[in-house]
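Case study 2.
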Amino acid sequence: MSPDFPTYAPSEEHEMLRQTVRELAEAKIAPHAAAVDEESRFPQEALDALVQNDLHAVHVPESYGGAGADALATVIVIEEVARACASSSLIPAVNKLGTVPVLLSGSEELKKKYLTPVAKGEAMFSYALSEADAGSDAAGMKTRAVRDGDHWVLNGAKMWITNAGVSEYYTVMAVTDPGQGARGISAFVVEKSDEGVSFGPKEKKLGIKGSPTRQVILENVRIPADRIIGEEGTGFKTALATLDHTRITIAAQALGIAQGALDYAVGYVKERKQFGKAVADFQGVQFMLADMAMRLEGARQLTYHAAIKSERAMHGEKVDDLTFVSSACKCLASDVAMDVTTDAVQLLGGYGYTREFPVERMMRDAKITQIYEGTNQIQRMVMARQLLK
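Prediction:
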């Protein structure tokens, strides 16, 4: 038997990347995380630092000016940024979410036009699928795209769009043939500067307050016909294929949030003294820490395993269980993140409940990972369908 198991062991280059991103995040991102949350402002410092170090969209292939990082490297970048600031981790995560439809289904011209500025850090790319009455039931969307000569005209409103108003580009799903159901949905690239594009007010959220979440409103938005992503009617298929890859990035974000909370809690209980000794000396606390770390590591291994499968699929290999493992890692990692951050608050006691310490922010940030890119109830439905088909 060969002693080499690359699927289960990140390479030396991956670990070097982790160290690089961790040092950058601790120096340039973490110091601003509390203020970003408190002020509900976009983490410009994080964007500047990530762009300067070519870490804002590492997944973009080298042929379009990107770093050409694999899916596991992208996971590690998101994880390490999220360890310092969950809002900031949505910069590389949403850049991937917005661009994967173009990578999977877009024409070569579309890829060159839109991936190149993203790779250079000149633009960010968001993803517009959900609507007010079409969240988990995304196929029930009402946004329309009507062909008019060599243009498409889009009308509708997209909800819960991450980094809306900051991103220059948007992958927008719209109905092109109302009689065909999910097969009547197509995907398009819409630019922020297109006439008729506007944004709703920022949502007032529990967590990830530094990442703006807004409606994207489309009023007679006329775009060139060549901005369609793939063939007409293939948009929903592209959307589902995209989520198979990008649910893994949400798992990565959840891992980072949980790791940040665990690391802080460990440092705290080693320093905090009660009854004449460190809180860490109490067996009940030790068992809590052990369970937190054990479940986190299990989620991490599943996420890395899914990332390897994602990478293989992006290179054209048929990976039959990608849908299952991507749903599984997102669901598990986000559930673990919620549990770990809640326990971290508990370990800090009254201090954990205050904004003077970061774990309450991490607990609030963790919650969204159970909701977006498919609620964990939807993930369980997806996994069951894969098992039963």
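The two ends are 34 Å apart (CA to CA).
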